[in-house]
């Protein structure tokens, strides 16, 4: 009896020891062996970087550089004045300053670590070109970044990988082709005209016929209205409610430490965690109701003009028949991609219009040039009707130059990452599986070696002959991302930007408010921390 008990105890201890050893081996493999393998492959090719520490990598140094930079900028900050002399466009030096410091020390391609995660910073034009041309599914979105963003984006197109991503793109991308998008011009105009009437009312109420406004809030509502109507037709009012909840999720999940790749170990949920979870459920419930209502409306023959949601529902239904293994995912696919369209389709365009008007308020001569172009192109025709012609929109060369330059200096996308899901070749570089490749757009778009000594200045004329002639390495201009994951809404966004800006600038002129505080911040996108306050006047 005693011998049997001793044997059982011995077996238990052996199993426990094996379990501990297994966990230890897994820990060492993930925290030491795998990172060492990745670093070895790259260091043999001459790629250097700051020396990492075990477990924490370069995170302490990153935090120290960020803290020192923040403190220095805080001491130097002064309020903006009305002539804009203190609105400097080299704000990128305060955002991820460790990346730029290391780029100066180690070159255009370098290696750094955040614990077990190994990162390759890329700003070399030749390697950027290879990234743009690479079209396999083996270069995807880092999984450690996607998981925390699920309450906001689900497993939609922005975060999906592999065949799941390819399937979603195949369904959604055709709905953003030009032949579909040009049918949305009318609703873009109608929404913009409604905003202009609101501004007109504010000016009429003003004794001086000029008004100071925080335009970014109004433009966010405008963009929300456009994307809601484009997606949901007559259900845009429910869509606007969803935007408010998605805005909360965006703010709650906008944590720079997410980029460090550390897991957040907590035994208890915080109040914010609970709010995120509840908000996530509410967004799903609202989206699901829209989907069910639309399906019922379609079955009864009540939908006469197809919007984006209707087209996605039809595509999803068709592909669930053609591809039965995706059938059970149809509702989840629709809900997740509605989230993605709300977030990427609305917020990015609103920010671009806001930053563009801020730049134009500093450069009134470009406002006048755009208005002169509108008169030249449209002649005696009403602008509202003139914009219905796609050939006419292509003639807005000055407006296009201004938009491209605004996207260069204040593009809503700040930083982008790719994870190598297998060993691969990019040009002459052997890329090991598991490496995370990072591209920091503001640094690329301000590189004086590429753009010239005036890289930090607003000069739309650099795009007079298109992107290909704007700089030495046009592949380093990436306002809509790069490679196979290039933004599918690029055509929709450019069309909306042209329509909204031409209508606004034909009616109103802008100058910088003395209350404007220039402070771009990173919260998944490039946001104006204190809003964009401008003086608005009616054009005479």
TrEMBL record:
Q: Where in the cell is it found?
A: Membrane
Q: Which keywords does this chain's UniProt record carry?
A: Heme, Iron, Membrane, Metal-binding, Monooxygenase, Oxidoreductase, Transmembrane, Transmembrane helix
Detail which positions bind heme.
Answer: 487
Q: How does it sit in the membrane?
A: Single-pass membrane protein
CC cofactor: heme
Question: Which N-terminal stretch is annotated as signal sequence?
Answer: none
Which PROSITE patterns does the entry mention? CYTOCHROME_P450
Gene Ontology MF annotations: heme binding; iron ion binding; monooxygenase activity; oxidoreductase activity, acting on paired donors, with incorporation or reduction of molecular oxygen
Q: Which SUPFAM superfamilies match?
A: Cytochrome P450
Q: Which GO terms describe its cellular component?
A: membrane
| Pfam families with a match to the protein in the record | p450
Major localization class: membrane
The residues that cross the membrane are 7-33
PANTHER family xrefs: CYTOCHROME P450 FAMILY MEMBER (PTHR24282), CYTOCHROME P450 FAMILY PROTEIN (PTHR24282:SF130)
Query: Which family is annotated?
Result: Belongs to the cytochrome P450 family.
Q: What is this protein called?
A: Putative cytochrome P450
State the organism named in the record: Rosa chinensis (China rose)
């Amino acid at each position: 009896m005693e011998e049997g008990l001793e044997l059982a105890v011995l077996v238990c201890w052996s199993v426990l020891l094996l379990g501990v050893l297994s966990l230890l081996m897994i820990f060492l493999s993930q925290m030491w062996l795998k990172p060492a393998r990745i670093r070895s492959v790259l260091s043999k090719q001459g790629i250097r970087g700051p020396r990492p520490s075990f477990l924490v990598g370069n995170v302490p140094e990153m935090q120290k550089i960020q803290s020192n930079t923040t403190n220095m900028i805080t001491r130097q900050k002064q309020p903006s004045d009305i002539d804009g002399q203190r609105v400097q466009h080299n704000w990128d030096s305060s955002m991820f300053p460790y990346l730029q410091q290391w780029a100066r020390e180690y070159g255009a391609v370098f290696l750094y670590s955040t614990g077990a995660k190994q990162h390759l910073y890329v700003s070399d034009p030749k390697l950027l070109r290879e990234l743009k041309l690479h079209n396999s599914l083996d270069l995807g979105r880092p999984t450690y970044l996607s998981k925390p963003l699920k309450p906001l984006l689900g497993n939609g197109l922005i975060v999906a990988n592999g065949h799941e991503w390819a399937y979603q793109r195949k369904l959604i991308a055709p709905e953003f082709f030009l032949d579909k998008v040009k049918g949305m011009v009318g609703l873009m105009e109608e929404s913009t005209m409604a905003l202009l009437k609101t501004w007109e009312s504010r000016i009429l109420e003003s004794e001086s016929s000029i008004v100071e406004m925080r335009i970014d809030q109004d433009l966010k509502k405008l963009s929300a209205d456009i994307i809601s109507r484009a997606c949901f037709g007559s259900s845009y009012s429910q869509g606007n409610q969803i935007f408010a909840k998605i805005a909360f999720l965006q703010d709650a999940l906008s944590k720079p430490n997410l980029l460090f790749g550390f897991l957040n170990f907590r035994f208890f949920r915080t109040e914010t965690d609970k709010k995120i979870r509840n908000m996530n459920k509410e967004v799903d419930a609202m989206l699901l109701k829209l989907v069910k209502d639309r399906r019922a409306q379609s079955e009864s023959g009540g939908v006469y003009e197809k919007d984006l949601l209707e087209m996605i529902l039809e595509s999803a239904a068709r592909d669930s028949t053609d591809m039965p293994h995706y059938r059970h995912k149809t509702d989840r696919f629709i809900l997740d991609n509605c989230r993605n369209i709300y977030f990427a389709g609305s917020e990015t365009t609103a920010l671009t219009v806001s930053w563009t008007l801020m730049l134009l308020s500093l450069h009134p001569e470009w406002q006048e040039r755009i208005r002169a172009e509108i008169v030249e192109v449209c002649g005696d025709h009403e602008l509202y009707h003139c914009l219905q012609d796609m050939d006419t929109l292509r003639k807005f060369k000055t407006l296009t130059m201004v938009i491209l330059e605004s996207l260069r200096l204040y593009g809503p996308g700040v930083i982008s990452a790719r994870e190598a899901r297998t060993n691969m070749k990019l040009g002459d570089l052997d890329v090991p599986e598991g490496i995370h490749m990072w591209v920091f757009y503001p640094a690329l778009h301000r590189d004086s070696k590429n753009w010239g000594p005036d890289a930090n200045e607003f000069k739309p004329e650099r795009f007079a002959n298109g992107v290909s002639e704007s700089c030495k390495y046009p592949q380093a201009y990436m306002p809509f991302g790069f490679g196979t994951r290039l933004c599918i809404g690029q055509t929709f966004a450019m069309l909306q930007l042209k329509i909204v800006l031409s209508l606004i600038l034909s009616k109103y002129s802008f100058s910088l408010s003395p209350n404007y505080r220039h402070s771009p911040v990173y919260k998944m996108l490039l946001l104006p921390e204190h809003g964009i306050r401008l003086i608005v006047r009616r054009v005479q």
